[in-house]
Amino acid sequence: RSTDAPFSVPQTDQMKGIAILMILVGHLFGHALADYPSLLHFRHLGSVGVTLFLILSGYGLSQSLQRKGIEGFFFQRVTRIYIPVFLVMVPEVLLTHFLLGPEAGLPRELARIVVNLPAVDRNMWFVQFIFYWYCLIFITFRLNLSDNGKVAVLFAVALAPLTIPRLSSS
Question: Rounded distance, CA 109 to CA 111, Å?
Answer without folding.
Answer: 5
